[in-house]
Each structure stands twice: as structure tokens, then as C-alpha cells.
Specification:
Elements (H helix, E strand, L loop, with lengths): L3 H8 L6 H14 L10 H12 L7 E3 L6 E4 L4 E10 L11 H17 L4 E11 L5 H18 L2 E9 L5 E10 L15 E5 L4 H18 L11 H8 L5 H10 L5 E4 L4 H12 L1 E6 L7 H9 L4 H7 L6 E5 L1 H7 L5 E9 L4 E4 L5 E3 L11
Parallel strand pairs: 4-5, 9-12
Antiparallel strand pairs: 1-2, 2-3, 3-6, 4-6, 7-10, 7-11, 8-10, 9-11, 12-13
Helix pairs in contact: 1-2, 4-5, 6-7
Bound molecules: adenosine-5'-diphosphate and magnesium ion (MG).
Length: 374
């Protein structure tokens, strides 16, 4: 809740008793004084406001709010910490999301943030808020997926918290990882002249979501209809069960490559490009024709009358890695089947530009998800 004056009540050092202050707080809340709606500043605006007031006090805090993980100095190495929650009704709809897949995804999206720092995930803790709508079997199915992901990523589930919820399921995962001090990669290291690369293909998770939403509607209109999903396995899988690109991090190590900046694609390529550009104080030129969009994603996007490029730029949830590398390092990966060069880093004054297939120039703007509008 955003009630600035009520915050000041607690900061006031006066003679008023706590009881009087609480009464005032209660009254202000009733009257909605000085209320700023969350959707006017959005998720990133809110995080910026939190970060602006946050002062770290320990020299072991190397990187605080602002990157994919917090970075903590352990002496010989850096510890990486990140947390991401999946909330029913915001991130998933249990009409079509199997709980096993949901568990797997909750781990993947967290491991992906460790990958984005060039690190290795080792432990997770999980906090669940569960409504009594769920059975023991349902929660066991969720944990089947969680434990399968732990096995695949070689991560240990080491604790958590379980509590009740009145409004559905919330799965909060915190991941812990590590990275050698000279191998950590931030969002802030891109340099003019570097090559901009992205892994895998983009837009598939968003198109997969459109398919699931369509089949849900068909089912609701006529519950005797079977959902038609087989032919869309690839796209639906991208939405339901994303894989964190730890394989790429291992390859960087094997080939002796250190990206100059990196981020994982959770909110859409445009939003992630803007994060790197802002934090590295650079511009970028990106070529539409180089964006890796799978043929099937492309054709299905058109079926839905959505531009495939829009899906890649603004769809999100692909959990691929976006990174910049020096030209020398790029030479070592340029033939990699799943790494695509999509553009180049420029001086900040040049801004962020998408060059369309027809050669037209467009400013890149983020239209990522604003959860507060839902
Ligand atoms: P990602 O998409 O990589 O998970 P986010 O966009 O969620 O990253 O968060 C960006 C940065 O803001 C991260 O450093 C994250 O730890 C921090 N952050 C997000 N929400 C909060 C919050 N409520 N309080 C403090 N820091 C936050
Ligand atoms: Mg991230």
C-alpha cells in the first residue's frame, strides 16, 4: 500500500503515544490520503524507488538491487542470491497449467537468474502459500516438478516455508549460487563495438500462452471439446516448462568466453535490451532480420494475427540469455547453433534502434508486462 503520510507517522519522533499514532494511521488509511496508484509507476518504477532509498551497510554486499542476482563477497568467491515468485492468477492459470510443470518452471526461472550472472546455482529454498482448495496430492505433484528440476540443474532443495493463503497458490523460490570473482557478469559491462547476442529462439513462450488461452476459451464454451494441443507441443512446452540456459554458461567456461554484460529474457527482449543499455550507459542497434524466431513460432503468431517480431521483442518468458561480447570472444562462438548475433553496441547518444527488414529505423521501447494492470 502506498500511503506516504502514514509512513511519516512512524518516522515522527514525537511525544504522541504509539496508540495515538496507530489511530491516526488507521484514519489516514480510511481516507486514502496521498495515494499513488502502483500502475502509474509500474514494476520497474517501484523497484527504482525502493533502490533509491536503500543504503547498504556491509562491505560484503558487492551488488545490491538492480541486477539478476545480488552479489555477496564470500572471500574466495562471490555468492549469488535471487528470488522469483509465481502467483496464481498473475503468472499461471491452473485450468491449463499442470502442477508438475509449474514446479519445474518455478525452479527454472530462478536458476535462469543465476545463469545471467555467469554463475552456477547450488541451492534453493521455497516458500509456498497454499489455499485449502489444494489437496495433498496436488502439492505432491508440484514438488514432483520441483524435484525433477533440482535433479536436472543439480540444485539442492534445502528448506522453505509453508503457509495458508485465501487467494490461491503462491510459489516463492529463492536460489543461491556461486561464481568465481573474476567471472561474474553484470548488466552494466557492455562496451561500444561489442556484439549483441541472444540464445535459442524468442517469442515461443508468448505464442504458447496464446494457444493455451484459446483452448481454454474453446473448452469453457463447450466442455465436451477436447483441447487441440498436440500439434503445438513445442510452443506450449516453451510456455509451461522453460529451461534455464545453464548449457550456455558451461560452454562459455569451456571456450574461455566472458560476456561483457548479460541478462536473462524474462520480460521480453526489448525490456532486457533497455536494462543493459541503461546500466552500461550505451546504445544499441538491433537488426530485425537477425532475431531468432522459430518457423513454427512465426507461422503460429501470424495465425493469431500478432507480429512475430512483437512476440520476440515484447512477449517475454523465453528465459533465453541476452549478452554482449567483445568481437574477439564472438569469433569463438559465431558458429554455435543456438547463439545468434542480433546487433551491435553503440555509444549512448545513438540510443536503441531496431532496424526493420525493410531498413526502417524504430526506437526500441519496452512494453513488458505490468503486473499491476492486471
Ligand atoms: P529479474 O527479472 O531478473 O528477476 P527483476 O526485474 O524482478 O529482476 O528485479 C530487478 C532488481 O530489483 C533485482 O535486483 C531484484 O532483486 C530487485 N527487486 C525486485 N523487487 C524488489 C523488492 N520488492 N525489493 C527489493 N528489491 C527488489
Ligand atoms: Mg533476470
Amino acid at each position: 500500500m502506498f500511503r506516504e503520510r502514514s509512513v511519516h507517522i512512524f518516522q515522527t519522533k514525537g511525544s504522541a503515544s504509539l496508540q495515538k499514532r496507530l489511530f491516526l494511521y488507521f484514519k489516514l488509511n480510511q481516507n486514502n490520503v496521498n495515494r499513488t496508484e502502483l500502475n502509474t509507476i509500474g514494476e520497474f518504477g517501484l523497484i527504482d524507488r525502493i533502490a533509491a532509498k536503500n543504503q547498504t551497510q556491509n562491505s560484503s554486499t558487492v551488488k545490491s538491487i538492480g541486477d539478476d542476482c545480488a552479489v555477496i563477497d564470500l572471500g574466495s568467491e562471490f555468492l549469488l542470491v535471487s528470488t522469483d515468485s509465481l502467483v496464481e492468477g498473475i503468472h499461471f492459470d491452473l485450468t491449463y497449467v499442470p502442477l508438475q510443470h509449474l514446479g519445474y518452471k518455478a525452479v527454472s526461472v530462478n536458476v535462469s537468474d543465476i545463469a545471467a550472472m555467469n554463475g552456477k546455482a547450488e541451492q534453493i529454498v521455497i516458500s509456498n502459500a497454499i489455499s485449502n482448495r489444494f489437496s495433498v496430492e496436488a502439492i505432491e505433484a508440484l514438488y514432483e516438478g520441483i524435484l525433477q528440476a533440482c535433479k536436472d540443474y543439480k540444485v539442492d532443495l534445502v528448506g522453505g516455508d509453508t503457509t495458508g493463503s485465501r487467494s490461491g497458490l503462491v510459489i516463492g523460490v529463492t536460489v543461491i549460487g556461486r561464481v568465481a570473482k573474476d567471472k561474474v557478469v553484470y548488466r552494466s559491462g557492455a562496451k561500444p563495438g561489442d556484439v549483441v547476442c541472444v540464445t535459442g529462439d524468442l517469442g515461443g513462450a508468448y505464442v504458447g500462452l496464446q494457444i493455451l488461452e484459446r483452448e481454454k476459451q474453446v473448452y469453457l464454451d463447450n466442455p465436451s471439446m477436447q483441447p487441440q494441443l498436440e500439434e503445438y507441443d513445442f510452443l506450449v512446452g516453451k510456455q509451461l516448462r522453460p529451461i534455464a540456459r545453464m548449457d550456455i554458461i558451461h560452454e562459455f567456461k569451456d571456450k574461455g568466453i566472458l560476456p561483457s554484460s548479460m541478462i536473462d529474457v524474462s520480460d521480453g527482449l526489448a525490456s532486457e535490451l533497455l536494462h543493459i543499455a541503461k546500466q552500461s550507459n550505451v546504445g544499441m542497434t538491433i537488426f530485425e532480420e537477425n532475431l531468432p524466431i522459430d518457423n513454427f513460432t512465426y507461422e503460429t503468431a501470424l495465425e493469431f494475427k500478432i507480429g512475430p517480431t512483437t512476440c520476440a521483442m515484447n512477449g517475454g518468458e523465453d528465459y533465453e540469455l541476452l549478452f554482449t561480447v567483445s568481437k574477439e570472444d564472438y569469433e569463438k562462438i559465431k558458429n554455435h547453433a543456438e547463439i545468434y548475433s542480433i546487433g551491435q553496441v553503440e555509444e549512448a547518444e545513438k540510443g536503441l534502434t531496431l532496424v526493420s527488414k525493410k531498413g526502417q529505423l524504430h526506437d526500441i521501447q519496452a512494453q513488458g508486462w505490468n503486473h499491476f494492470n492486471k
